[in-house]
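Quarterly update from the structural biology core.
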Amino acid sequence: MNNGTENTLEGRSALVTGGARGLGAAIVRRLAGAGATVLVADVRQELAKELCESLLAEGRQARPVGLDVRDAEAVAELFEELDASGGAVDVLVNCAAVDVTKSVAELTSEEITRVITTDLLGPMYLCREGYRRMVARGGGHIVNILSTASLRTWTEAGPYSAAKTGLRAFTHTLFKEAQRDCPGIGVTGIVAGGMETPFIMERFPETDTALLQSPEVVADAVMYALSVPAGSAAAELVVVPRREVSWP
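Predicted structure, tokenized:
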């Protein structure tokens, strides 16, 4: 992606879930580098705090926000607190995700619930709160991070694939509603292929990193989606390594 989009988000605020590390952190750095004030929402508060401190030391604007996206009330309260303080979310990036690598027969009810609530219901809660406020303000942009698992599944990925497939359908629906409700709102789903992040490397340390891409590439795709002129829309982007094994 063209890095000439630097400083295009001056005066705008962004909320990134799962922003403390991995792809989320790469997106946070990219948005902050472009001038946005970024809320780093994550359950890993120490990591979020460290990331924000490093960005502040570089002259960027970022602050940590403790948030479990599975908690619909907590999501609503966060947006209500922003309303009360005069804040707003111009850019919402739903990146928080978990996975459990087990066959369907071996999954526990708790594991299924944790994946579905984090990867599907959480983004839906955030989209609901963010979207209704963007409509009231007349603009904004929502980016939902999808996966090749939303297009093609594999074994030991049942809940994850179901969640990402559902999120892709939800994103498409939201895109259509934005076309109807408010042309100033952008909605983009980014189908991201394998990345060299803890999400993969902690579970599959033997993975050949030559088959993976840098999370910074996907972060650049987020910036591209935000840079598309008002008369056009980046409804969905697919960003995969050249040697991606799960797409097409």
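The CA atoms of residues 194 and 212 lie 5 Å apart.
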